[in-house]
Amino acid sequence: MIFRPAAFAAVCLVSSAAIAQDAADTTAQIDADNLTETVRTLASDQFEGRAPGTVGEERTIGYLIGRLQALGLEPGGEDGTWTQRVPLLHTQLGEPATLAFTHGGEAQPLDFPTDIYVSTLQPNDVARIDGAPLVFVGYGVHAPERGWDDFKDVDLTGKVAVFLVNDPDFHAAAGEPVAGKFGDRTMTYYGRWTYKFEEAARRGAVGALIVHETEGAGYGWNVIESPGGENYDVVRAPDEVTSLALQGWISGETAQALFADAGLDLAQLSEAARRADFAPVDMETTLAAQFPVEHEVVQSQNVLAKITGSARPDETVIYGAHWDAYGKGEPDTQGRIYRAGANDDALGVAGLFEIARAFEAAPQPERSIVFAFWTAEERGLLGSEYYAANPIYPIDKTVANLGLDILQTAGRAKDAILVGKGQGTLEDDMARFAAAQGRTVTEESLPERGLFYRADHFSFAKRGVPVLLMMGIAGASDLVEGGTAAGQAWVDDYTGRCYHAACDAWSEDWNLAGAVQDIALFHAIGSDLANSDRWPGWKDGSEFKAIREESAAARE
User: The domain containing residue 415 runs over which residues?
Assistant: First the structure.
């Protein structure tokens, strides 16, 4: 049974009993055994950790296409195929020939990656910065809509921008003028390291360095240095390649010494950066760096399938999950060498299969539904980014993107976890359909970590498409058995032991009843959108509302 309101207002005419019955029917269609079988297959050694550009990718793509064909879906890729080609630039830094800060004629050698961690997204044999001046730009935020500009027209051409991590109000005390201007503890996009690197490149900098602190970043230095000088990007035209020869982080201790050697007080400057009148500071220090670079183009693929809409086929609801994981690594204590991402995100892939199966068993939807399996999410959301920059279905008429990325495996929950409170109207849909399941909605517990900006749905959000993400590690679920204490224990165990590690493997201990609830919830939300003519939107204060409004005419 599919809930089919003609418009959003019609929801009010449907009895709560009917909605609850629809939710029950939808949940019953999601099969935990099917989820288990999909995850066990994709996380098996046969797929070698599903890294882009490897044999593991070839086997994964073949498996996905075979499953989609068996479900009866249509090819949704380019030129009537099941895929979209995604060329990726892969770079790997070697040992540096030169790496030092210089102030007052005295060079201070740096250790890579202990003192400074960098990588490159330029396809050159050498990554070089020849004595470029360092400029401290505070939080590096240019947000006219919030009355904030850290740059004050400083010329960064040929220079290295030095940033603080997170937002200008992250450490603000009550009563400071900036308090609340950037969401308080909730990170905005301006706080993400990706934004800071992009802004430095827009201003012609040759390097960008972020001062690391664990609280503001949301992770320790061990996470920063773990890629070992490796990076990925989509292949870009020569005039679109970043101006940054090197981008990365400075450890907290190294930053303290760097500022002190330049006669500057990092703590005082950090406080000054929380004021709107902050102006960039020439650190009278230069950076010299030279790294050999191995680089290659890796051919990868997104996989896309669709169900064509009966009434408005040019309007599209997109479900997404990423098929890639981390490939081969060092053996863990149990001898496992593949970081195969059973939960991250083979379970999300399995969820899309189940949603597709439910739609195939129902009457044809009025709008088209696309099921997207993204590559290279773990390399920087690159598969979804490539699609959003080169869309097969018009972005202006993409109704929403609904993403599954890490679902909790600890059993039924009394609530669903919302990522990105206050961003869009889809959170209201989530509350409505969660209530139909007999559940409430709980906000993510650590919004300062910016999870809203760290999954594939964000590639759509920054182009104005309304989005919703289901991510089980965003907060402690209120489990039917054990409550929030048990939910937090699951989050702590998964993130502390198995996130991006070899132990993210299928386990007999998994209880997928909660994942079934979440998958059914997203099926219900998408079914409502696919069988109505309403357009979800962004809420006041969202940095993406104005972007969506620019294309309003296309949806009239």
Answer: 8-72+308-555
